Amino acid sequence: MKLYARGRLAAVAGLAAVLGLAAAAVPAAGAPAAPAALDGSAAGATAASALHGATSRAGASARPSARATAPTDSVAGARARSQRSLVRQDVGGPELASPGVVVHYPAKGAIPLPQIPASAYVIADAKTGQVLAAKDAHGLFQPASTLKVLTAVTLIPLLNPDATVLTSTDAAQTEEFDVGLVAGRRYKVSDLFKAILLISANDAAVALTEATGSLAKGMALINAEARHLQAYDVVAKVPNGLPADGQVESAYDEALIARQALATPAFMKYDSTHIAQFRISPQTVVSLVNQNRLLTDYPGGIGGKIGWTVAAEATYVGMARRHGVTLIVTLLHCTALQEITAAEKLLNWGFAMDGKVRPAGELVRPLPARTKSAARAASASAAKLPVVPLATGAGAIILVLLGAGWFGLRRRRSAVRAAASAAPSSQDPPQGD
C-alpha cells in the first residue's frame, strides 16, 4: 500500500485527533505521530491489536510463493495518486521528490539500471552520502520488519547490553514470528537484539521497547530518533513493523537509518552475526540463524534486514563494502522472494557506477545532538499530553498546531509532483560507448 503526505491534510488530521475526532480523520502519514498509550485506553487497545493481530516473515518457511509480476499499488494508493495537488518532500535534493526513476548517467561508459520489481528504492554511497539512483525515494509505504533497524538504532545506545529485561504478557503474546519469549522471565538485552536482527523476532522488539519504561515511551523515542536523523517520512506505530494504521516509511529514510546503523558498531556486530544461541528457558535453547543471505551469498555483504507482510510486500535494507566503498540499498513494496536478488543487482550497478554518475541527491546528516535531545523531550511530552476540554482548549490547540506546521514547513522544502517530474533525468543511458 502506498500513501502520500498532504501538508494541510496532515494538520487537519492532527487537529481532529486532539479534539477527539480521530476516527473521522484521514491518517496524516507524513507528520510525526503521537505515540499510542497502551495502558487500557481505546487507543492502546487499537495499538495492542496491531501488535497481536498480524504477521511478519521470519524464515523461508513463512515466505509466500514468488509471483512473476511486480507489485501494484492498492486502490487507496491509486486514489492518492489521482490527487493532483499532492505535495512531495524533497529532503536530500529536489529531484528525489520525483515519483519515478532518477539517475544521471555519464556521457560515456554508462551501464543502465537493472529492472527492479519494487515500487521504491534507493542506492547510495554511505561515506559520501551521494544518492546514485532512486525510484520514488520519498514515496510512503509500509516498512514491515525493516522498521526494526530504526528500533535497534534507537535502543542500542539506551540499553545496557548486559542487563536483563522482564518479559511482559503483551510482549510474550506478540503475534508470530517470534523467538518464543515467556512472560515473567528475564532475558539479556544483547540476546534480544540478536533475536530481532537475525530472525526478526517480533516479541523481542516489543520487550526491548518496553525496557525504556513503557511501550509508549519507547515508541516516542523511536519516532524522535527518526526526526534526529531527518527521516521525516517515518511514522512508527509499533516497534516490530507489524501492520498498524498510518505506519509508513520511505526508501530514502530507510537509507538514512541504515547509514546510522553503519555508524553504530554494536548494531553491525549483532546484524552481521551468522548464528547465535538463545536460551528461552532453562530447558530450551534455540538457534538463531541470520535470514539475510546477503551476508553469505554476496561478495562484500556486511549487513541488512529483510521484511514482509501481506500489505507491505517484501521490503529490504542491505549494506555491502568493496575496496573501501560502502553502499546502502533499500527497497519497498517489492515482489515477494525477489528483494535480495533485486538488492544485489542494484549493488552491482552501484559499485560499477559509483563516482561516474552525477548524484541524484544526497543523504542528509543527522541533526546536532542538542536538537536530538529536544526532539526526544518533545516526543516524551506528547505521550503525556493531557486531555483539554473542547470548549476551552480548542483555540490554544489550533494555535499550537499552526505554529508547528509553520516550523515544519521551514524545516523541509516541498515540491509539487508536476514540477518534480519535469526535472531533467532519464532512466535510459545515453547512446554511445
In brief:
With 433 residues, the chain is α+β, with helices and mostly antiparallel strands. It has 15 helices and 15 strands. The radius of gyration is 21 Å and the shape is globular.
Topology:
Layout: E1 2-3, H1 7-18, H2 42-52, H3 75-81, E2 87-89, E3 101-102, E4 118-125, E5 130-135, E6 140-141, H4 147-155, E7 164-166, H5 169-172, E8 186-188, H6 189-198, H7 202-210, H8 215-228, H9 251-262, H10 265-271, E9 275-281, E10 284-289, H11 294-297, E11 301-309, E12 313-322, E13 325-334, H12 339-353, E14 361-362, H13 369-383, H14 390-411, E15 414-416, H15 417-421
Antiparallel strand pairs: 1-6, 2-15, 3-5, 4-5, 4-13, 5-14, 7-8, 9-10, 11-12, 12-13
Helix pairs in contact: 1-14, 4-8, 4-9, 6-7, 7-8, 8-13
Verbal overview:
- This protein has helices at 7-18, 42-52, 75-81, 147-155, 169-172, 189-198, 202-210, 215-228, 251-262, 265-271, 294-297, 339-353, 369-383, 390-411, 417-421, and strands spanning 2-3, 87-89, 101-102, 118-125, 130-135, 140-141, 164-166, 186-188, 275-281, 284-289, 301-309, 313-322, 325-334, 361-362, 414-416.
- The protein is an alpha+beta fold.
- Strands 3, 4, 5, 11, 12, 13 and 14 form a seven-stranded antiparallel sheet that branches.
- A hairpin with a 3-residue loop joins strand 11 and strand 12.
- Helix 4 packs across helix 8.
- The chain is globular.
- The protein starts with a strand and ends in a 12-residue tail after the last helix.
